[in-house]
């Protein structure tokens, strides 16, 4: 009995020491956190400084106004977010600096987007992104975007369907699959490409449209980096060309001419797959991009019967041609900027590791003159609920 | 300080022992035998039984020529009056005349009376006074006849008892509805009716020096391990206490881990449950005066098995079984997980959920741990009140309770709404496993405190500690966490899922391994084969 008592005492003492000395040090209540939903990085006029804009969610204002709570007032007019801007010497310093403005500590794990202002991106992004890669709080799953305007401007736009602009932009990127005309790049992907010697990083491009209070943000293509500096932009068509090669096409609409030539036909992409195949023929390096695509007839603006075999075949041919053109457009732009956005270099590296050592350092000279064959196999599968279009017989 | 307390307890125990020894040697019940003189016997009895008002001493005479003085001693309320009137007094007073006077001579009359005149099932001849008195106190009637130093003890037990009713604690939708009662004999009969087998043994002991409570050990000879039966008996015989009022008393005296919060003996109110356990090779301990029957050995997963699992179809039974495990996990970890997530690991929570939870936390005054502990305590108070409250006031508790842990607490801004949901979920889940619900309440409290200090780390420490403890426990030689640890693949048939009856081929290993085969292989229903 006596022994049991002392054992109990010992356990009590040990657990008290463990709990009281080792516990609680990183305890944070939810109402002491400022949940950051989006971060913008800009280059201010003052040289050598960093301007950071964060969008903080105000959970209290996020609550949907209750049916009976109309009389309470106040919450209706308030924005459910707060956009704070601060300037400092380094990213980390600036973020800590915000403690003077926000009584709650900034909390980054739920940061969904990192917007780089055009000026900052042109200057080089390594110094800005280091913090986001190094610190344990921000996630590597955040989307990286380049704003054609300043990042703070993008974060100040109005979101119609979501309550917080940053979340709206994040959802915008997630919804890109419907058209596949905007790239979506997580911080992780961006950093991986940044660390590659040859592959050029890309990021979604976002623009602000509209005037005054009605400003909205929209995705308009892709920003292309050379090393860590912004080199140029791809428009929507070129972006889709890039995504065809990267095997990132989810869905989208391909417009082709009616075989009769009296209107347009929309074909919906159902499945797409692509492969990059490097090959050495006659002592020169060739690259083939094979694209397999399947589509459905989505809508037709002409009145012809497209279900005849000849018309169907023509449509398939046209479809392949459009895809081919899109890829070629992207390729042309990439050659212009001399940026290997497709990861051709990595493909060569994988297949010819020995050869790669020789050409690795000369890739910049190689790339613009690289022979790339684009082989598109496009099929048309179904015609929807009807076969012939709706018209009097 | 605790050592001192334990020392004191120890001293107290020694004192108690002394008291008991003195008590058992007290002169109240004499070791004397009966004398031949009725008057002296009655005087002795009066002396021993004292001034109790329920003792009835009926003196009378019988015989035709030579009157023989006799007396009946019984307890009013404990005896069946009809038997006494119709089967003892009436034959003696009327029918004694029909027997020839030669036969009814005082010298041999006690044997004649026992053999020919008492139309009662159970009559025995008793010489020691103490035995006669004990039987009388148990409801039998003593017949003393002048001139004999032997008494006839006639079984006339009969008292007001609760009838066999549906047990309140273990309700089933499908399955037998009868439950044990407070009378030992009724309970043994209920079991005997389930198991009509000569190997089904019921052994009775008397425990409690003052209460002399009948305690019955029930087991199936040939199936139960004889060493287990011996162990149960020897542990029961160790008990030297003055009173056994409920099977809980016995449980605490003979359990394997007296300091563990986990029960190592199962109890049930349902004869079918106890019968099933006996058929698995367990030993049941029935105590007079309570409908709660103990069964040993107990394993942890027994708490997750319900009688109905075996009466309903196996698919649904397996689903419900899994749900019970889930519910147990929820009831012990839900508040702790909520505290850990909201105060340490906000990055684990999906963004929309985090925003909702943060919105609910906005403006609440207490930290999440305090909230969880306050709400947990209030729930436990409400539960206790609900159990103890007289039924007519019961509805008041539910109304007030709904206010305290409900919308009002939230709208008053005292508690965040998610906490109310978490606590309610915990409460509902805790009712799913009634036999472990008190352990669950304790584990929940400890885990919540650990989570408040150390976050998810604390929860893991707590759960691991609990798991290690569970694996270390034994109940009457059977590992408490079996068949999971030590793993017995064959017995997994009745853990997370319940296989169909025709696939329950063996009894649980380590409990019924003595006679492991339950039925023969190949009982799955199927169309007859050609050569059959």
Strand content of chain A: 25-35%
Instruction: Determine the N-to-C terminus distance of chain B.
Output: 77 Å
Rg from alpha-carbon coordinates of chain B: 30 Å
Ranges of chain B where pLDDT stays below 50 over 5 or more residues in a row are: 22-29
Along the chain, the helix and strand elements of chain B come as: HHEEHHEHEEHEEHHEHEEHHHHHHHHEE
Coarse structural class of chain A? alpha/beta
* Secondary structural class of chain B: alpha+beta
What percent of residues of chain B adopt helix (DSSP H or I)?
Answer: 40-55%
Largest sheet of chain A: 9 strands, mixed
Mean pLDDT of chain A equals 89
> Which stretches of chain A are poorly predicted, pLDDT < 50 over at least 5 residues?
66-75
Helix content of chain A: 25-40%
Count the beta strands of chain B: 12
Largest sheet data of chain B: 5 strands, antiparallel
Strand content of chain B: 5-15%
Q: Output the helix-strand order of chain A.
A: HEEHEHEEHHEHHHEEEHEEEHHHHE
What is the CA-CA span between the terminal residues of chain A?
Answer: 101 Å
Describe the structure.
The complex is a heterodimer of chains A (393) and B (532). The longest helix of chain A has 29 residues, at 309-337. Chain A is globular and about 90 Å long. Chain A has 393 residues and is of the alpha/beta class. In chain A, α5 crosses α8 (187-195), α9 (236-246) crosses α10 (309-337) and α11 (344-351) crosses α12. Chain A has helices at residues 2-22, 59-62, 91-97, 118-123, 126-134, 151-155, 165-174, 187-195, 236-246, 309-337, 344-351, 353-359, 363-366; strands at residues 33-42, 50-57, 81-88, 105-107, 113-117, 143-147, 202-209, 216-226, 229-234, 253-257, 264-281, 284-300, 371-380. In chain A, strands 1, 2, 3, 4, 5, 6, 7, 8 and 9 form a nine-stranded mixed β-sheet that branches. In chain A, strands 10-11-12-13 form a four-stranded mixed β-sheet, sandwiched between helices. With 532 residues, chain B is an alpha+beta fold. Chain B has three domains: 38-154, no CATH class; 184-298, no CATH class; 314-469, no CATH class. In chain B, 44% of the residues lie in helices and 11% in strands. In chain B, the strands form three sheets. A five-stranded antiparallel β-sheet of chain B has the order 1-2-4-5-3, with helices on both faces. A five-stranded antiparallel β-sheet of chain B has the order 6-7-9-10-8, sandwiched between helices. In chain B, strands 11-12 form a two-stranded antiparallel ribbon. In chain B, α10 crosses α12 (368-388). The longest helix of chain B is centred in the middle third of the chain and has 30 residues, at 314-343. Chain B starts with a helix and ends in a 53-residue tail after the last strand. Classes of the chains: A alpha/beta (393), B alpha+beta (532). The A-B interface holds A 1-2, 4-6, 8-9, 19-20, 22-24, 26-31, 33, 35, 37, 57, 59-60, 62-63, 107, 109-110, 112, 137, 139, 167 and B 2-3, 5-7, 9-10, 259, 342-344, 346-347, 351, 354-359, 361-364, 367-368, 449-450, 452-455, 458.
């Amino acid at each position: 009995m006596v022994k049991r008592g002392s054992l109990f005492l010992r356990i009590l003492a040990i657990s008290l020491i463990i709990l009281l000395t080792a516990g609680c040090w990183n305890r944070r209540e939810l109402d002491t956190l400022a949940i950051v939903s989006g971060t913008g990085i800009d280059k201010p006029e003052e040289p050598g400084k960093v301007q950071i804009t964060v969008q903080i969610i105000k959970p209290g204002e996020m609550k949907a106004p209750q049916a009976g709570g109309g009389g309470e007032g106040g919450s209706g007019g308030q924005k459910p977010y707060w956009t704070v801007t601060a300037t400092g010497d380094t990213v980390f310093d600036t973020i800590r600096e915000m403690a003077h403005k926000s009584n709650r500590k900034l909390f980054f794990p739920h940061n969904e987007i990192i917007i780089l202002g055009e000026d900052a991106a042109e200057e080089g992004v390594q110094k800005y992104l280091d913090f986001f890669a190094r610190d344990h709080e921000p996630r590597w799953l955040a989307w990286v975007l380049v704003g054609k305007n300043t990042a703070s401007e993008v974060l100040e736009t109005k979101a119609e369907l979501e309550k917080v602009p940053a979340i709206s932009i994040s959802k915008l990127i997630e919804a890109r699959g419907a058209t596949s005309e905007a790239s979506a790049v997580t911080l992780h992907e961006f950093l991986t490409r940044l660390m590659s010697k040859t592959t050029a990083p890309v990021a979604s491009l976002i623009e602000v449209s509209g005037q005054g209070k009605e400003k909205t943000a929209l995705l308009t293509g892709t920003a292309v980096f050379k090393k860590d500096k912004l080199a140029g932009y791809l428009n929507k068509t070129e972006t889709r060309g890039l995504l065809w090669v990267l095997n990132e096409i989810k869905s989208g609409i391909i417009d082709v001419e009616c075989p009769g030539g009296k209107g347009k036909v929309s074909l919906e992409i159902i499945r797409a797959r692509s492969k990059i195949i490097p090959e050495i023929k006659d002592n020169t390096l060739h690259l083939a991009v094979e694209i397999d695509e399947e589509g459905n007839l989505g809508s037709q603006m002409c009145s012809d019967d497209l279900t005849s075999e000849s018309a169907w075949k023509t449509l398939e041919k046209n479809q392949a041609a459009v895809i081919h053109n899109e890829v070629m457009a992207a390729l042309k732009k990439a050659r212009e900027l001399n940026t290997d956005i497709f990861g051709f270099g990595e493909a060569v590296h994988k297949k010819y590791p020995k050869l790669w050592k020789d050409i690795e350092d000369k890739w910049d000279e190689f790339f613009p003159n690289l022979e790339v064959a684009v082989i598109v196999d496009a099929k048309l599968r179904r015609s929807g609920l009807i076969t012939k279009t709706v018209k009097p017989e | 300080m605790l050592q001192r307390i334990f020392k004191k307890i120890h001293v107290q125990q020694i004192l108690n022992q002394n008291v008991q020894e003195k008590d058992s040697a007290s002169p109240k019940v004499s070791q004397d035998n009966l004398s031949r003189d009725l008057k002296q016997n009655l005087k002795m009895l009066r002396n021993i039984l004292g001034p109790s008002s329920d003792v009835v001493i009926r003196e009378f005479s019988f015989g035709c020529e030579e009157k023989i003085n006799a007396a009946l001693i019984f307890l009013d309320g404990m005896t069946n009056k009809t038997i006494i009137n119709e089967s003892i007094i009436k034959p003696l007073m009327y029918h004694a005349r029909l027997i020839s006077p030669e036969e009814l001579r005082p010298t041999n009359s006690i044997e004649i009376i026992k053999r020919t005149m008492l139309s009662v099932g159970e009559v025995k001849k008793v010489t020691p006074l103490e035995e006669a008195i004990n039987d009388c106190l148990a409801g039998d009637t003593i017949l003393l006849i002048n001139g004999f130093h032997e008494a006839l003890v006639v079984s006339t037990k009969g008292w007001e008892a609760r009838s066999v009713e549906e047990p309140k604690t273990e309700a089933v939708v499908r399955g037998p509805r009868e439950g044990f009662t407070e009378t030992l004999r009724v309970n043994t009969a209920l079991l005997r009716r389930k198991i009509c087998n000569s190997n089904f043994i019921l052994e009775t002991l008397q425990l409690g020096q003052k209460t002399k409570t009948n305690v019955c050990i029930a087991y199936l000879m040939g199936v139960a391990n004889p060493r287990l039966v011996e162990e149960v008996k020897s542990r029961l015989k160790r008990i030297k206490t003055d009173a056994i009022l409920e099977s809980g008393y016995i449980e605490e005296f003979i359990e394997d881990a007296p300091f563990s919060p986990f029960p190592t003996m199962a109890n049930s109110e349902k004869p079918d449950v106890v019968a099933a356990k006996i058929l698995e090779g367990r030993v049941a301990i029935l105590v007079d005066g309570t409908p709660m029957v103990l069964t040993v050995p107990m394993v942890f997963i027994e708490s997750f098995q319900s009688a109905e699992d075996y009466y309903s179809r196996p698919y649904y039974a397996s689903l419900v079984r899994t749900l019970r495990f889930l519910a147990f996990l929820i009831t012990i970890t839900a508040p702790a997980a909520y505290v850990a997530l909201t105060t340490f690991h906000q990055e684990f929570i999906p963004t929309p959920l985090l925003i909702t939870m943060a919105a609910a936390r906005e403006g609440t005054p207490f930290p999440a741990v305090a909230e969880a502990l306050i709400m947990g305590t209030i729930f436990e108070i409400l539960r206790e009140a609900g159990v103890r409250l007289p039924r007519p006031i019961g509805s008041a508790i539910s109304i007030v309770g709904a206010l305290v842990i409900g919308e009002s607490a939230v709208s008053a801004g005292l508690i965040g709404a998610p906490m109310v949901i978490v606590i309610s979920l915990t409460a509902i889940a805790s009712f799913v496993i009634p036999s472990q619900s008190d352990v669950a309440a304790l584990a929940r409290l400890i885990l919540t405190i650990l989570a408040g200090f150390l976050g998810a780390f604390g929860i893991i420490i707590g759960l691991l500690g609990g798991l290690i403890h569970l694996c270390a426990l034994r109940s009457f030689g059977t590992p408490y966490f079996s068949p999971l640890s030590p793993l017995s693949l064959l017995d997994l048939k009745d853990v997370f899922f319940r296989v169909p009856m025709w696939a329950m081929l063996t009894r649980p290993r380590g409990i019924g391994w003595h006679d492991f085969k339950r039925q023969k292989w190949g009982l799955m229903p199927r169309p007859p084969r050609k050569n059959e």
